[in-house]
Amino acid sequence: MSVETQKETLGFQTEVKQLLHLMIHSLYSNKEIFLRELISNASDAVDKLRFEALAKPDLLEGGAELKIRVSFDKDAKTVTLEDNGIGMSREDAVTHLGTIAKSGTADFMKHLSGDQKKDSHLIGQFGVGFYSAFIVADKVDVYSRRAGLAASEGVHWSSKGEGEFEIATVEKAERGTRIVLHLKSAEDEFADGWRLRNIIKKYSDHIALPIELPKEVAAVEGEEKPAVEWETVNRASALWTRPRTEIKDEEYQEFYKHVAHDFENPLSWSHNKVEGKLEYSSLLYVPARAPFDLYQREAPKGLKLYVQRVFVMDQAESFLPLYLRFIKGVVDSNDLSLNVSREILQKDPIIDSMKSALTKRVLDMLEKLAKNDPDQYKSFWKNFGQVMKEGPAEDFANKEKIAGLLRFASTQGEEGEQVVSLAEYLARAKEGQDKIYYLTGETYAQVKNSPHLEVFRKKGIEVLLLTDRIDEWLMSYLSDFDGKNFVDVARGDLDLGNLDSEEDKKAAEEVAKSKEGLVERLKTALGDSVAEVRVSHRLTDSPAILAIGEQDLGMQMRQILEASGQKVPESKPIFEFNPAHPLIEKLDNEQSDERFGDLSHILFDQAALAAGDSLKDPAAYVRRLNKLLVELSV
Ligand code: ADP
Ligand code: MG
């Protein structure tokens, strides 16, 4: 034991304490994953060293044979992991093992309910990492030295996982990290060669560098214990370099957990090798669940980049568009230079063609998932649909392909669920229907009952119901699908085209003619509040409705722009009335101009309310309504 200097005790960041508590209490049925996490970290550390050593070969300090060693001591009840990777300085240990750097962590922790069952589900979204050591250990010692630092600048980090850790400077001869787990008394089964070997085979076979265990050598009575011999227990080759047909699903799944730092199995993956003008391999995964920080701007995204098997960088963002930022995986190029930088990646034309090929791979993989496993695709859509909706705006070239992957709620789909594809919509469209109809709004309940749908219900025409905040913006980028135009049913002068019979049209024209007088009176009464007044052919039950002008912004867009502090051009609605409604007939027969005015304003305000809009002058609405109620009760 060497001398420890500059010893101090520090507290964990609050979030670490919460995470530790949650982890210890929720992962008891899956304890063995601690080894996978620690091996994953050791492998990352070796990757980083190998990369840094390209520019600074001295970092290897003569010990170029990179590996991980796992050993155990049955009597002392310890398991020890040792790697000769990049290591940690004292400062590294304090930040990396004492805080969680992920943005949005505090927010995430607030969402924990205290209900262990529910929360243990959330931990999957967060990833467990180093702290999983405390699932099986009641004390963890980490001895580490950053490659390139002097042997005297080693660090000893130690904690019982109870809110604080000790840190001291120690002598450490070899670079890299040694982690000693002092097992809880109930967990001493892990101090066993057979057990450790099985766990490594199960979870870490895909790790590209050797993981060694001490060879079991039977002790011979009376003889001195022989020196430890080590043997490699994993396959120790980069998974993506092996032929697809030889890789088992479990291997793909465990590799995913390592690269994605995820806890759950992925939904799907696509493994490819490209040869020809460009040479690269890619292994891309669709996660099963959205990470907690999917909408954080600084959240990690992008692929792990290797150049000729050598790890070069994490989170290489240039290989996929933003709307596919949830995809995880690796890309290994034979064309790039080993000293490629993020800046170079952004400009390199090689990257552009790789990006479009990889994007297509992902879209193909999603198409396949949708086709072969609609239930899984439904779950995918729940998690990532909102992000996919950014696609048509960002990726013009793949617009039609992305549109095919979109799923919507509709008047004929499952109640409120986004499950209807555009292809499905068109397949069951009415005879003669050459449009795709949709309605946007704040909530499903609101659009489902919107008066705008009355005529569609009557004619049995399906309407897509769009209530995500991004939907109106999305629709501004989609003009057609499969040659059929999109039509917002709340916009303009609804023309049902072939869906209206000649007789219908003729009858409507005649009614409109007979109501010209009423239209003029309403125009005078409503004055500045409306852009236009006309007879509606959208309504069967409601007396009146407000339509949006053909070129005007819809409510969602208006709200988004207003929220971002932009000045929004004023636009007035079109007031449409239902000539067959008794209230409208009453209005038409009203002699008193004052009463006519009150009634028209009430109808106008009601139409705004039905559309989910707020009233400009709610007090006036109440006053007018009460006036009528009083008259009624006399
Ligand atoms: P993650 O692996 O997702 O970054 P972890 O909790 O597993 O999170 O690890 C936290 C950090 O601690 C790592 O990012 C790394 O900086 C550091 N670390 C952990 N184990 C090692 C190791 N064996 N060698 C060097 N650094 C390590
Ligand atoms: Mg980790």
Question: What does this protein structure show overall?
Answer:
- There is one protein chain.
- α2 packs across α7.
- This protein is α+β, with helices and mostly antiparallel strands and 634 residues long.
- It starts with a strand and ends with a helix.
- It has four domains: 228 residues, Histidine kinase-like ATPase, C-terminal domain (Heat Shock Protein 90, 2-Layer Sandwich), CATH 3.30.565.10; 144 residues, 2-Layer Sandwich (Ribosomal Protein S5, domain 2); 93 residues, Rossmann fold (3-Layer(aba) Sandwich); 132 residues, Up-down Bundle (Four Helix Bundle (Hemerythrin (Met), subunit A)), CATH 1.20.120.
- The protein contains 23 helices and 22 strands.
- It is elongated, with a radius of gyration of 33 Å.
- The strands form four sheets. Strands 1-6-5-4-7-3-2-8-9 form a nine-stranded mixed beta sheet. It has a five-stranded mixed beta sheet with strand order 10-11-14-12-13, sandwiched between helices.
- Bound molecules: adenosine-5'-diphosphate and magnesium ion (MG).
- The site of magnesium ion has 5 residues, from α2.
Task: Describe the structure in brief.
This protein is of the alpha+beta class and 634 residues long.
Summed up, the domain count is: 4
CATH architecture of the largest domain: 2-Layer Sandwich
Distance between the termini: 99 Å
What ligands can be seen in this structure? adenosine-5'-diphosphate, magnesium ion
Q: Provide a count of the helices.
A: 23
| E-strand count | 22
For this entry, what is the oligomeric state of its chains? single chain
CATH fold name of the largest domain: Heat Shock Protein 90
